[in-house]
UniProtKB/TrEMBL annotation:
Signal peptide stretch: 1-30
Protein name per UniProt: CRE-CLEC-61 protein
Keyword Mitochondrion found: no
UniProt xrefs under CDD domains: CLECT (cd00037)
UniProt keyword annotations, A-Z: Signal
Annotated PROSITE patterns: C_TYPE_LECTIN_2, VWFA
GO biological process, one term: innate immune response
Cited PANTHER family: C-TYPE LECTIN, C-TYPE LECTIN-RELATED
Source organism per UniProt: Caenorhabditis remanei (Caenorhabditis vulgaris)
Length: 463
């Protein structure tokens, strides 16, 4: 869950029952349309009764940084499943069929059912000329060697995939040896042939491994290959059948991209975790941009649907604003809703050699019509910056942003100092704060844009 989600809680309105009636009357009495009055009434009834009012991340009146897209039906990935079919997996582990030959999809503990359960009704598979947001799925089985059981162009629907998965994974082999290196190499080769250097070259790649054994002798050690693959491919692992073998779990987890290692003992939670992994892999930034995380130091911390770009050329605030738009479609000067965002931006600045102390860089603040406001994507209304913010058409103040970072004495009252800049005021402290300054002065600046993800498709030529 996004740790910075903000709610308007009932303690902002410590009202009695009489106040509730007043709320309702005020809500419906304003000079608005009937639809607006109904929304006002519902909103204030909720507040007056003491219920929390949460603000969605895509609501223009909220101060919430964007999260990665969560639309499972519109994932656009190339995924290869690498499945151990050696004797160690067992028939019960790799597939499950009822006496009548009907697939037991409820038993998500087995590989075939779990793979089928990852994809939801309406999800677009294969290649569609009129819809770029599709996912392709390939399957590799391995034991002593590896076999391409289904290439990336085989499945064109979820039903097609379900049928194919149970046909491919209908039983284990009679081979005892299990060499993950062979499976990974086959997956890498398949992606090289059918994904990289094709029209889907800019699609993110994900390999999901189901393994019951880990061998690391000589040329069959999968770790060096996995490390090379992780430069361009995300890898997730699911350990099967040996959850009491800590050595096996520890070694297999090294194959995975950090945070993407799971076990079959998690049952249905594994499906949820893998779906989340798919959404996270599909959430990325254009080349040269930094994806915002909860922690700059921890690469495995929560990732936001926000990309940041430090621009080291000097420009006026207005020129910076238009420069951001030219760097990427709908990019804009950075906003800083929270301490987390502010700190992450500052870490980018500190780790970009062109920025030198004392740090000074433009942000997206500007003073317009008596209000400080944050820049938003072109075509969207700016967000007013104030301790209190007016909601709907009635004069009821709702606290939406209680964090600000003005340096002491700022903002100053000035008809010319109408834009925001982050300034380091002390050489003994590597922190910055907001100040208002003149539009005609020049500084470096930070741009912001939404990630490429399941709700925001990015064309290859734009990346």
């Amino acid at each position: 869950m996004n740790p910075d989600l903000l709610s308007v809680n009932s303690h902002f309105f410590n009202m009695t029952c009489n106040s509730f009636l007043l709320c309702f009357l005020v809500a419906v009495a304003c000079k608005c349309s009937w639809e607006t009055r109904k929304r006002n009434a519902m909103f204030l009834v909720t507040v007056c009764l003491g219920g929390p009012v949460s603000r969605a991340s895509n609501c223009k009146d909220s101060y919430v940084d964007r999260v990665c897209g969560e639309d499972q039906t519109n994932l656009w990935l190339d995924i290869v499943f690498v499945v151990d079919n050696s004797e160690g997996m067992t028939n019960a582990g790799i597939t499950s069929v009822s006496d009548g030959g009907i697939y037991e999809l409820k038993e998500t503990g087995n590989v075939a059912a779990q793979i089928s359960s990852l994809f939801v009704a309406g999800q677009q598979l294969g290649i569609q000329s009129n819809n770029p947001r599709t996912t392709r799925v390939g399957i590799i089985t391995y034991n002593q060697g590896a076999t391409v059981a289904a290439d990336l162009n085989k499945f064109t629907s979820v039903d097609d995939l379900t049928d194919g998965v149970f046909n491919v994974l209908n039983k284990v082999s009679n081979v005892q040896d299990s060499y993950l290196h062979a499976g990974l190499q086959a997956a890498n080769d398949l992606l090289e042939q059918q994904s990289f250097n094709t029209d889907r070259g800019h699609y993110q790649k994900l390999v999901i491994v189901y393994a019951s054994e880990y061998k690391q002798s000589g040329t069959q050690d999968p770790l060096p290959l996995a490390i090379r693959m992780q430069q361009t491919i995300s890898i997730s692992t699911v350990a099967y059948g040996q959850d009491d073998n800590l050595g096996f779990l520890a070694e297999l987890s090294k194959i995975a991209t950090p945070g993407y290692n799971f076990t079959n003992q998690q049952g249905e939670n594994t499906v949820s975790e893998l779906r989340s992994t798919m959404l996270q892999v599909n959430c990325y930034c254009p080349n040269g941009w930094f994806q915002m995380r909860q922690s700059y130091a921890n690469e495995n911390s929560f990732k936001y649907g926000v990309c940041l770009l430090p621009v080291t050329l000097q420009a006026t605030w207005t020129a910076s604003k238009f420069s951001c738009r030219n760097h990427w479609n709908k990019a804009y000067l950075v906003n800083e809703y929270t301490q987390t965002k502010h700190d992450y931006v500052l870490q980018i600045v500190r780790n970009t050699s062109a920025f030198t102390q004392p740090y000074t860089y433009f942000n997206g603040l500007s003073y317009v019509s008596g209000n400080w406001q944050w820049e938003q994507p072109d075509g969207q209304d700016p967000i007013i910056v104030s301790f209190f913010h007016y909601v709907f058409c009635i004069n009821i103040a709702i606290q939406l942003q209680n964090w600000s970072d003005w340096n002491p004495g700022y903002p100053t009252a000035s008809s010319t100092a109408t834009v925001g800049v982050n300034v380091q005021t002390s050489s003994s402290s590597l922190t910055t704060g907001w100040q208002n300054t003149r539009k005609d002065l020049t500084n470096m600046y930070i741009c912001e844009v939404s990630t490429c993800d399941s709700t925001n498709y990015c064309k290859a030529e734009d990346i």
